[in-house]
From TrEMBL, chain B:
Keywords: Cytokine, Disulfide bond, Secreted, Signal. One of its GO terms (cellular component) is extracellular space. This is Interleukin family protein. It is found in: Secreted. It comes from Anthoscopus minutus.
């Protein structure tokens, strides 16, 4: 295809970084090259016979490229590849390993909302949404993507320093028989059994149970 | 009634995840797939799920695992652990078939023919290694509903 003789060192560590299926291709500059290196990117659906160029990532000098749109069908798997150019010479195409959005994404912690009534705490959990192209696009909760999604909830008594842990499948939890005048802190994590995926824990939400009148 | 088979997907998934990068790196062919193209498992009707699952477990037991020996003993141990899990599930699916609970429709027969054609389009070792590298495609489909 009229390509130049490629003697430039290759881009390194070409890989996908994915959070809630927002899939960004990352790489490191070729060893020993300073400024001025430009890159182009292509991707392929595994099992389909052609590589597709990504126009928005042609002749770019940054070392990442957002391929979320191109890899949004999580029933498919993908490869991506990067080539470097500098002063009229180029590198080889350097590929990722096979990328499976369903198993290779990371999941954000759930949103946690906490309220208290009488001597109990009500906790409502919301799983993050799958990445979408635009705000107008219909939202899809990761709960729909991972039917076996569960929540691990931690409730911490700030007076006694005692911690309870719960594992629930639905998104609400009521913790009864709590001590008046005591502060409780709640945080939660998403757990998917298979494929095995765990989010981090959300930041703590603390609430104090009102004293009896 | 429906055929219901208990199996430890978590165990199979963990075993495959441990060797996925190793196995997939042995498959240089990006442009061909055994399970997902030209037709995708995700398009299988629910009435055909049991039959396709049985056919695919038989396919992996009879045609894939035995051709996937590597020079890496860790990888070989994981492969045989997955193979044993598949053997026990296949046996349970067989019992369902004997009780007529796992009927094969025309679509599943056609789809499985396509999978076999994809497999036979490559030499045995390449086809077996590619099939093993696509185990997550099978697991993803099975876990979907």
């Amino acid at each position: 295809s009229g390509e130049l003789y490629c003697s430039l060192p290759n881009p390194r560590n070409v890989h996908f970084e994915s959070i809630n299926m927002k899939n960004i291709l990352h790489w490191s500059a070729p060893e020993g090259t300073g400024d001025g290196v430009l890159y182009k990117v292509k991707y392929a659906v595994y099992g389909v016979g052609k590589w597709i160029r990504k126009p928005e990532c042609r002749n770019i000098n940054r070392t990442w490229c957002d391929l979320s749109s191109e890899t949004s069908d999580y029933e498919e798997q993908y490869y991506a590849s990067v080539k470097a150019f500098l002063n009229g010479t180029c590198s080889d195409w350097m590929e990722t390993t096979r990328f499976n959005p369903l198993t290779d994404t990371k999941i954000d912690p759930p949103m946690v909302s906490v309220s208290s009534t009488d001597r109990s705490i009500s906790i409502i959990l919301t799983a993050p949404e799958k990445w979408k192209r635009s705000p107008e696009e219909e939202s899809m909760s990761l709960l729909q993507v991972y039917p076996g999604l569960q929540y691990n909830v931690s409730v911490f008594n700030k007076k006694t320093k005692k911690r309870w842990s719960f594992s629930i499948s639905n998104n609400t939890l009521v913790v009864p028989w709590l001590e008046p005048g005591t502060a409780y802190c709640v945080s939660a994590q998403i757990h998917v059994t298979t494929p095995l995926l765990d989010s981090g824990f959300s930041k703590e939400h603390c609430i104090t149970i009102l004293k009896d009148k | 009634g429906a055929c219901s088979v208990s199996m430890s997907m978590t165990e199979i998934r963990a075993g495959f995840t441990a060797i996925k990068a190793n196995i997939q790196s042995r498959d240089p062919i990006r442009t061909l797939s055994i399970l997902s193209h030209p037709c995708s498992l995700h398009k299988v009707k629910s009435s055909d799920r049991c039959c396709i699952t049985h056919q695919l477990f038989t396919f992996y037991v009879d045609k894939v695992f035995k051709h996937c020996r590597t020079e890496d003993s860790f990888v070989n141990r994981k492969i045989s652990s997955i193979a044993n899990s598949f053997l026990s599930v296949r046996r349970k699916l067989e019992q369902c078939r004997e009780k007529n609970k796992c009927v094969c429709g025309e679509e599943s027969t056609e789809k499985f023919k396509q999978i076999l054609a994809n497999y036979e389009g490559l030499n045995v070792t390449s086809a077996a290694m590619k099939s093993l590298g696509e185990l997550d495609i099978l697991l993803d489909w099975m876990e979907k509903s």
